[in-house]
Amino acid sequence: MNNFKSFIKNNALISWVIGFQFFRFLILPFMGLMPQDAYYFLYGQNLSLSYFDHPGMIGYLLRLFSEIFGKSVFVIKLTDFTITTFTILAFCKLASYFLSKSKTERALILITSTLFISILSFNSTPDVPLLLFWTLSLICLYKAIFEENKKYWIFAGIAMGLAFNSKYTALLLQFGLIAFLVFSNEYRKLLKSPWLWLSILISILVMFPVYWWNYQHDFASFNFQSSERTSSISEFNFSATYFFGAIAHQLLLLLPVLFLVMITITFKFIKRAIVKWKLPNAKTLFLLAFFIPTFVGFFSITPIYWVKLNWMMPSYISGIILAGMFINQKLIKTQLIFSVIFHLLVLIQVLFYVAPIKSDDTWIGWKELSLEIEKLQKKHPNTFVFSDDNYKTSACLNFYMNQKVYAQNVIGLPALHFDYLGDDLSNLDAKNALFIDSDKRFTNVSKNGEIHPELKNYFEKVTELEPIIIKINEKEVRKFWVFYCENYQSKNQ
């Protein structure tokens, strides 16, 4: 015990790291199911080489943990927490290659204190495995390049491939690698090395299942992730909301101190390169190669496109190590103050739900909704259930209910990966259904009064029932409109 107290006393920053992770672990049982949790759990329950929205790594991991520990919301959260903890450990190892012991500890407390680590620890997204394999890729590439350990080219190829099998953003790993070698006078010779190209070839081979799935499905996922977004960006419509929204998101994810330090570092190195035509030493350039393209690249399109808050996350890995080179102890303390305040606010929100969330992106009410629908099905027997909000309601109900819950492809609308589950909707012909529609804004307890226009094309008769009102601690927090639909006909598909 005395040795432990001495360790904590002499390693104050490390004790903060342990404290943050302990806090996150303790809060896991109180976190409800998020729609993303349910959707990617659905991935894992319908194993495939890849999926419509993203590659399948997060789904595979959720399936693995559920097979070992059983199906529960806690196990889903435990999966995210465990993988993110491995990411922190990998980050610590990576940082130690570039920083002194004291600065490595500073970088470690910087990443552990952020809200983005908390989000990854609580919420299942492709970014959870992406950041782990991204970090492992940088470790392997470092050893291959700077320690000239050739076997790590092979490990790097595997890690980069697994990162891509987590999320398409991982292509920036190969981009960053080539960019580093092109700009590095010392290591440019590696562009001619067969080990480099073997590493990239291995990564492509590991990625092959994703390419094969896309080939089998007319490149549906690649088109979904690229064509629509490219079209929106090419329109070049300036929006101050997009730009300042992105800044607000990054301030929240990184907290103000770390975000401003990273902005300062970015400006400093870009200015030095442009004005003085001077590049940093090889190791710093290595970090910048995996930071600038992602961080600055996505930031550069924020005035014309809504950049989601998680898109820049991979850049944080090397960006925070760069921040660890310059940040001082005073700023670390300020970062910790911000972090403690924000995490306490998160705790209060999770435990007491003090601020209503006007969105379906919430952990509140899904289980209660499933219980209410089961009661409705007793009044309206032999009905199937479906919804129309891309995936959220359908995925959550699929998790909680012991029956198949359908999405908007029932009424001929695109339904993301629900379109690829192999459902024969003709089996539902002549059946009745309950259509569930979330009232995101929830301003009153009244009926909708309007019927979804597509429902009339697929059902003989549609009747609106009383809405389902979800209460938490006697407070009305969510509302769902309910429609009883009779005699389904899939022939209109």
Describe what is shown at a glance.
This protein has helices at residues 2-10, 12-27, 35-45, 57-69, 73-96, 101-112, 115-122, 127-145, 151-164, 171-183, 194-216, 220-235, 240-254, 256-275, 282-289, 292-300, 313-326, 329-352, 366-379, 392-400, 455-458; strands at residues 383-387, 405-406, 432-438, 459-472, 475-488. With 493 residues, it is α/β, with parallel strands linked by helices.
Report low-confidence residues grouped into runs of 5 or more: 6-10
- The dominant shape is globular
State which percent range the strand residues make up: 5-15%
| Distance N to C terminus | 69 Å
Following the backbone from N to C, one meets helices and strands in this order, namely: HHHHHHHHHHHHHHHHHHHEHEEHEE
Number of helices: 21
Tell me the number of strands.
5
Keywords: Cell membrane, Glycosyltransferase, Membrane, Transferase, Transmembrane, Transmembrane helix
Pfam families: PMT_2
Main location: membrane
GO cellular component, one term: plasma membrane
